[in-house]
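Lab manual, section 2.4: Encoding a predicted structure.

Procedure: take the sequence of the chain (124 residues), apply the prediction step described in section 2.3, and record the output as structure tokens. A sample record is shown.
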Amino acid sequence: MKNNPVVPYILIFALGLGLIFFMSLWGADQKKEIAGENEDGKTEDTAANAEEFDPEGFTQQKCISCHGGDLTGGGIGPNLHGLSDSKETIHDIIKNGQNNMPAFGGQISDEQIDQLADYILTLK
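Recorded output:
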């Protein structure tokens, strides 16, 4: 009697599905540790980043593609130097976006948005 060559593949497939199932149960049980959350519900990275936020570095990472390398409006975004808008207006634009500008409210905290608005207002 010949051995069926498909049987090992079926066994490997079944073992893989079983592993995926049990690993997902284990991961669901350990989700707080995996996410790195503390008792406040904030992730450790968010708590650390709130103190170490670098507005200039953020603009170099996220803003220069539209506002140009020196933020003078070399791309599709306007010049950010010498804005006469209020800090609240700039905060709102950063948080919620405007026209084609994306909203950053979900990416950084309100405190970080305030720091970014302060930085933008210092540009001359």
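Check your result against the sample. The helical segments are 7-29, 31-35, 44-51, 55-62, 64-67, 87-96, 110-122.
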